[in-house]
Structure formats: C-alpha cells, structure tokens
C-alpha cells in the first residue's frame, strides 16, 4: 500500500515545481510575442490556458508547503523546543513594526513609532461633527418658523 501511495504521490505531485517552471517559461515566451503584437488566435488561447495552469500549479505548490509546515508543527508541536521558539520568534518579528517613514523621515525610536501610529489612526477615524451648510440653513429656517408659529 505504501509503495502504491508513494508512486501515486510522485506521479501527481512529485514534479510540481518543474511543471510550474516550464509553464512560466512558455507563458513568458508568449507574453513577449504578445508585446510584439504578433500573437495568433490559437496562441492567445494557449496563453489563457497556460495562465490558468500556472495559477493552479502555484496553488498546489502553496498548499503542499502549507501542509508540510503543518505536519512539521504537529510533529514538533508546542513543546518547549528550539523549533517552537524559532517559529514564535519569527512570527513576532513578522508582526512587529520596527520603524515608520513620515515625510521621507525614518522613525525608529519605539515610543515615537507608537506615537506616529496612534496619531495616524486617530486622524483616520476622527470625524468632524460640524453640520453641512444646508442642514444648518434648514435648522435656522425651522427656528424662524417656530418663532412666528408658521408651519
């Protein structure tokens, strides 16, 4: 059973990266030809098929690596291992903001970075509660009507 699965896996997924590379090369050649404006209808159809194939192969390679990473995580897991700390530290580095660029000036001081991020989102989500001019006019006219008891 293992041998049959190994053969099936090699035939189905063993050459994904090489298939992807060949597809990219073929697509690149057709893209260059399209830039020259000498692309025939059948070549245009082939180009569309190659794009779809390249996207599909890329997704398969991505899923394969994702599954391999999950297997690795499952095997080595959350135990207090070098692998766990390596993964946790890399995620922390990827999620941290070490510097920001404001008006072509790089700010690296953590307190100033926090302040700039805070100011950015405060300005982004602050609303001006001033009524639009037409609403003010309507309210003014309503008050005048109320003074004269006009409806």
Description:
The chain is mainly alpha-helical and 151 residues long. 75% of the residues lie in helices and 4% in strands. It contains six helices and two strands, in the order ααααββαα. It has helices at residues 2-13, 16-36, 41-76, 82-95, 110-125, 133-147; strands spanning 100-102, 105-107. Helix 2 packs antiparallel against helix 3. It is flat and about 70 Å long. The model has no long low-confidence stretch (mean pLDDT 77).
Features:
single chain; 151 residues; mainly alpha; 6 helices; flat
In the predicted model, the low-confidence regions spanning at least 5 consecutive residues are: none
Structural class: mainly alpha
Tell me the radius of gyration.
30 Å
Percent in helix: over 70%
What is the secondary structure topology, with strand pairs?
Layout (H helix, E strand, L loop, with lengths): L1 H12 L2 H21 L4 H36 L5 H14 L4 E3 L2 E3 L2 H16 L7 H15 L4
Antiparallel strand pairs: 1-2
Helix pairs in contact: 2-3
Write a short abstract of this structure.
The protein has 6 helices and 2 strands; from the N terminus they run ααααββαα.
